[in-house]
Design goal:
Elements: H1 8-28, H2 35-42, H3 46-52, H4 57-77, H5 85-96, H6 100-108, H7 113-131, H8 139-161, H9 170-181
Helix pairs in contact: 1-2, 4-5, 4-7, 5-9, 7-8, 8-9
């Protein structure tokens, strides 16, 4: 579990711990980091670490939670009545650009499997909201379709991010997915 606070010193240490975690993951190419490694890199002591997080993995959970909240907020603020998957994934990629190499590693490595689940849940929330705009569809149908779409889009998108599709540009992937999903919305 991770903690939150608006205290400036708390946020400064939190940012240092997150940065240390990301840098160490990129260096070591693994999620298996010790609290000592992270605290040393962030130039804080272990007690400071534990005042923010229970485990090293909580840093990634917090980071991914913040990213998914931004993705959902971006989609909620998107104007227009027609759902645009291309715009959603483009915005998601823009948010990830800050740490794109980190996200590429996360998308590839099984040590980060829970991230796929969190991104899937974010996309499921978005798809449910979009599908609820069609009052003719039964609630159970909306839920099943939201799960189906979120699973497919999440795995295709993260596999693209991991480089599974070779040199396929983002624009090509987005056009393909947008055309494929247009029949649902």
């Amino acid at each position: 579990m991770y903690k939150t606070s608006n205290d400036l010193r708390f946020r400064k240490n939190q940012a240092a711990l997150q940065r240390a975690y990301i840098d160490l993951v990129l260096e070591k190419k693994t999620a298996n980091l010790t609290v000592k490694e992270i605290a040393d890199r962030a130039n804080v002591n272990r007690m400071t670490f534990y005042s923010h997080y229970d485990t090293a993995a909580d840093i990634l959970r917090e980071f991914v939670d913040a990213m998914t909240e931004e993705i959902i907020a971006e989609q909620s603020n998107a104007s227009g009545s027609e759902f645009d998957l291309k715009a959603l994934l483009d915005r998601s990629t823009q948010l990830m650009q800050r740490e794109i190499e980190f996200f590429r590693l996360v998308a590839k490595d099984d040590d980060f499997g829970f991230c796929r689940s969190q991104f899937r849940d974010a996309f499921k929330t978005i798809f449910r909201a979009e599908l609820e705009k069609n009052p003719r569809a039964a609630k159970s149908d909306q839920l099943v379709m939201a799960d189906f779409l979120a699973s497919g889009v999440t795995y295709v998108y993260l596999d693209w991010l991991a480089g599974e599709y070779g040199e396929l540009p983002l624009e090509g992937l987005l056009n393909f997915l947008n055309d494929a999903l247009r029949r649902f919305f």
